[in-house]
């Protein structure tokens, strides 16, 4: 691994100086242990381009989406999870690149929305799964987004279910702290249109945010980077006022180039955003959701299932129509 010093924290100067950022659960900085971000060689966009070289949309999708570093999502479809995460971060490590992984298997996942319902069979099954996820990464550098939507999805849940979920997330963070010392874990915090900053700060804290490196915003959504930065800073202000600490945050910019039109499920007229990079109003701007992958059977993805790659949607997202 090459070691390079980088100005990763510059964007955090946007926070009020009075806010004291809580130290990360890990001392290591994976961005200084690697030389740029990893491009998933087996992403859905890559596979579609390879299988359809004569399609008139392939060139644009290849140039603007398939070769941009983005996250790989892991869940029940991933097989033996420790083997899957180990192989993925191992391949990135071989190339001296930083991989982005999404853990998406919490028990009662998407309990209220339903489009991505599923997850582990029980809280104990999830505890085993996430422990193996972290163990597969081990001491290699990585970025992990922990359970998108899990803290925004409270609308139809009982307090007992909420407590159960927060316990699963706290347990997951403990596993990464113990087994993956060179991984930055971001606990997902939804988006600016879901919960007010005070509510999200409380949910993050109760789910164990102190153990995480930071929190993630806008995963699979469309709010602008400016809107997310303002929201992230507001969440941090609430964290500081209530609990005496703040945390870095990252923003999913994969589909926010035209901002949000108020719809979250395959809206038309959206556009890809700033490619994965350090800084940009947050600690990092990341492509977490693959542009062109469906949000579910809705909107311009009517008839599709969540996660299915839709080349026409991807192509239109390149140009914003």
TrEMBL record:
Its EC number is 3.2.1.-. It comes from the Bacteria. SUPFAM superfamilies: Glycosyl hydrolases family 6, cellulases. Keywords: Carbohydrate metabolism, Cellulose degradation, Disulfide bond, Glycosidase, Hydrolase, Polysaccharide degradation, Signal. The active site is at 149 (proton donor), 295 (proton acceptor). It holds the Pfam family Glyco_hydro_6. Substrate binds at residues 73, 194, 221, 264, 289, 293. This is Glucanase. It is an enzyme of class 3 (hydrolase). Gene3D superfamilies: 1, 4-beta cellobiohydrolase. It comes from Streptomyces violaceusniger.
